Predict the 3D structure of the following.
Amino acid sequence: MIINKAFKIVVLSTAFLLVLVCLSFARTDHRDYKGSKLDECQDCHSGSGVMSNHGAFFMKEHRLLAQKAGNNCADCHQQSFCIDCHKGGGIEPDLTRSLSRGSEYMPRTHRSDFISIHSIKAADNPQNCYRCHETSFCTDCHSRTREKGNMKIKSHRRAGANSQIYNWNSDHAAEARRNLQSCETCHPDADVCVKCHSSGKQNPHPRNWRSIKSRYRDISNGRTCRKCHITY
Amino acid sequence: MRVMKFLVILMALACVPLLSHAAEVKLTSSTQMLWYQDILADQSEKDAAQYLRMSATKIDDEGKLNIYGYGRASKVFSSPSEDLQGRLYYFYVDYRNAFKDHLDVRAGRTYVNAAAISGTVDGLYADVKNLGPVGVTLFGGRHVIFEEKNEIGTRGDALAGMSVYLDTIKNTHVEVSFGRKYGDTDITRELLGLDFSTTPHGMVNFYGRLKYDTTAETYNEMLFGAKVAPLKDLVIRGEYYNSYPTFDITSIYSIFAVEQYQEKSIAAEYQLTSKYRVSVKYAKENFDSDADADVVEIGFLAKPIKDLTLNATYEQRSGYAGQLSGIRFYGEYKINKAAILAGIDYDDFRREISREGTVKKYWAGLNYEFNKIVSAVVRVEDNVNFNYDNGYQGYIAVQLNY
């Protein structure tokens, strides 16, 4: 009985693998098309059975394609093409790109004076910034501007022109939960947060904390926990 | 010290052609002078930068062995106290089809990329491929972190991962990946990734991406989308994106509760004729039960006459975090060996939580090819914003391609 079952599993598995092998295919080598213009690429990638790409929204779409194993980006692009956009390099003369305040080349997604509009753009999917920037990139600037007048964020301001009350109590919780990375830019060690959100005070943890806290304790050897909990 | 190592490596690479007369060596050098405004120092700065990129291919008789490198040295010479700084972006040996057509290997400093984790490592990358429909990638090494104009990090920073992918049934790709990041020898991140993409018909493509943080036991990112091409020159895309930010385990922020970010978007792109393309996108962003935003983007690309390209985009955003209305316009015209470009950016913004205003950027540039080896570019820009009535920046670069 057991032998019959095992035999059936082996046969079915082998048949499945054979089907897969028969159906497998090799991706198209694009090296012969390296010199083609994008217009010519559309001849194959439009109406001929292959979905088009490198279109108007490719700046956002390319991430999924580039992170696929076995992708064909290298058939046409050197690694420097990717590195220059993601890490501020500039060996290729792309005249549409501006310089940042640190003389790095900014990607085309950073329109006009990106410093003025970056706080709004950073809210559009907060994780986008971290595809290119380390946290320290933000901290470097914000740690030096946090006391500058109207560059303060709303929850850090007074409730009125002559008020002695800050917006803090009413506004900071919602702002922090929506974009905690922005807090990290000025408070990298969360020393301010821990004053109120440590053991015995306001609980900062997510709902599933009971099931995951032991992993944080074990992996950090208790270091993360001891920031607030002396007994860890 | 690092810059010196970089230069030594470059000199060693210059000897590569001597090892094999059949090797093809390409060198690209870009010598640049840049000037810009440092808003924090409240002064204008001048930098000199030297870029060098090389590729040596077909080093062995079978043409499987290649070496690639790219780096930069720069110095702020308006501030005498600044040292020479450098970055080695990548430098690796690339051995294609090391074992028949089943193994590609990269060794050295290289960029590695998987759904679960990505980054630059000093280590190894291996792609075990063509095992029927299955392939496996493995990578690992010291994690290279670029900051300012050089590198940071300790010897204990590392990145490692693997992926198993399945390419079966034409135009279908499924991939599972795993990645770990170490900071100073401690595990700081552990992520699982799942990617799928299928084009069952030339007119329809479905794709998805899931990224799971094993420590926080939650999805870090979730993306599902579909692209439809009902007409030959029309592509419509709909996407749902969900993000739950997680932090390094060693960061105190990893213990805080956060809200999900959700985005639903629809976009369309239509090639009116071979010379004109129009695109439009709408996204609804949701930050929590009380905060959302709407984003609309419109784009237009035109090539009305030979060698002339015009590009215009408009974005309007309203809702949580602020209002934004921005336009970008630029054009390029090629005349013989020269290309002239110019553009304008304009943004009208109102931050919900601080100031409002307008921002303008005017720029123009010229790219001239003296011959196949030598070319030069120059770009000038004027920024008008809260900080500057006229914030000038620009650069001049001389390119050499051997």
Q: What stands out?
A: Chain B touches chain A through 151 residues (CB under 8 Å).
